[in-house]
Amino acid sequence: MRYITKSVAETEALGARLGALAAPGMVIAYSGDLGAGKTAFTRGLARGLGIEERVTSPTFTIVDEHLDGRLPLFHFDLYRLGSADDLFDIGWEDYPARGGVCAVEWSERAEELWDDGTVRVELRRGVEDNQREITITGVDGL
């Protein structure tokens, strides 16, 4: 499905809708340019999971864990990684099995890891400043 949001709040609200539908072990692979809204979408996703703590991009830590919602959120930022091998070095294979949701920014850096069960979220800037074109595949009922 393709969505157009006109503000950060609308982008977060769409993320919250996905969070409300999220199931244990779900992997969400984000793609989009710098500033396209990946972290804003993830803030909404966290809200939809019932997570109240502040969500920021884990660019320097690679992964942030938010454990206080109905499901844990493991928020990855692969921007600084060179390949999928680097992700395995931090224990990637354990995260989906922990029963939470893995939200992966810059997922194209580890494209070979994502399978047909991966939810894809592509974010692009729209024609207006705060407008975003968001395409979500791999999930029903959104």
Describe the structure.
This protein is an alpha/beta fold. It has one domain (about 1-135): Rossmann fold (3-Layer(aba) Sandwich), CATH 3.40.50.300. Helix content is about 20%, strand content about 25%. The chain is built from 3 helices and 7 strands, in the order βαβαββαβββ. The protein has helices at about 10-20, 40-50, 85-90, and strands at about 1-5, 25-30, 65, 75, 100-105, 120-125, 130-135. It has a 7-stranded mixed beta sheet. A hairpin with a 6-residue loop joins β3 (about 65) and β4 (about 75). The longest helix has 14 residues, at about 10-20. The chain starts with a strand and ends in a 5-residue tail after the last strand.
Give structural attributes.
Rossmann fold, 7 strands, 25% strand, 7-stranded mixed beta sheet, alpha/beta, single chain, 142 residues
Summarize the topology.
Elements: E1 2-5, H1 8-21, E2 27-31, H2 38-48, E3 63-66, E4 73-77, H3 84-89, E5 101-105, E6 119-125, E7 132-137
Parallel strand pairs: 2-5, 2-6, 4-5
Antiparallel strand pairs: 1-7, 3-4, 6-7
